[in-house]
Amino acid sequence: MRIGIGTGLDYILETAPISPKILRHLSRLTDDTGLLEHACGSIPNPAEGYTADDNARGIIACCLYRLVTGQRDADGLADRYLQFLLYCRRTDGRIHNAVRYDRVFEDEVGSEDAHGRAAWALGYASRFPWRPGIYPAVEYLRAGLWPHLERLESPRAVAYTLLGAAAACGLVPTADIDPSVVGNFRRGPENVPAGDEWRRLTLRLAPRLADRLSGADRYEKKWITPRFTYDDARLVEALIRASALIKGAESTSWMKTGIEGLTFIWEEMWSPEHDCLILPGNHGFIRREKARRPGELIPEHYDQQPLDAAALVDACLAAYGATGEQTWLRHAGFALEWFYGRNLGRVALADPIMGGCYDGLTPTGPNPNMGAESTLAHLMARLGLAPHEKQQQGRTRSERSVFG
User: Fold this and answer.
1) E strand or H helix at 392, and its extent?
2) Does domain 8-403 correspond to CATH entry 1.20.1250.20?
3) Taking the chain, what is the end-to-end CA distance rounded to the nearest angstrom?
4) Strand partners, 77
5) pLDDT digits 0-9 by tens, 149-162
6) Which of 74, 105, 288, 399 has a Cα-to-Cα distance from 133 of 20 to 30 A?
7) CB within 8 Å of 398: residues ≥ 6 apart
């Protein structure tokens, strides 16, 4: 599927509105245990097993689907993913991450990032339920994780947890565009932690992340690592959302650091020459000045991951929600267009109807496999911008200026 540069979202608005079909590939990847991690082409690959990471992100995608459509088509999937997290829970409250197809754990305990993603999912589940019966499971998992979350040190684990806290209080990408979309969802029963508890956790964790992003230990006073790696935009999104959640002088500095960090990321990843994002490759820092034409083999540019495009969509929406600046909304649209052809390869990576997404952009085109992480990245990005798509429907292409 090839889409001309800059026309991806017009194509979606005209031919591929969000419907239950967008869950089809996600359903294909899900069996009676949970969400399988990898696929061979579009066929699930049982040999690679499952991860708590993917099942947690699956919960988020299902909650967003329910939030933006009001439909229950994803509820059964969400049940299965929550069940999988219950299976991964250790007796000490921490979780396993890697699980074989025969349900044998492959690790002693999951990484901090896996715990952060679990918290992110539980934040969504506690605020945007698919049915009341989920609450005992949500609280059981949360209670076990809580003491371990307070001791997190990994920047991404902290960021994911902060995003969970924001979601528990209604601060999610769709609400950056249309705050009314969260109005129909009531808080859970009393045994699910209220906003005050999530805010207290935010007060403990956000300063750690802010110190890392603004501290003197940044490389060349630019970033916390020598090069961009993966999901970097989640770090700045988390600070922006934490600032929106916690009002005060300290949180104002979090907002400043978050916006400055996002501006830096965007300026490094956006290529005016190619009119598209050049996402981090897995071989080094972005060196876009070496690229002379779209699709040129520059190792530092490949393989580009859908995860990073989705993170930029959500971070730009957070910045838009916080500042009201239309530029950030346009940037979010450009980041979503990366999935549909606005990229170096000028090739679509995601199916806007069935929801599946190729695993990355290589020098020769898409990686042909359509695994869980990439598919969920596409779904989360698409659903995050869904309220704006709805606002744009019925307008002419020239009127859809917000998408560029």
Assistant:
1) helix 386-392
2) no
3) 21
4) none
5) 999 999 999 999 99
6) 105
7) none
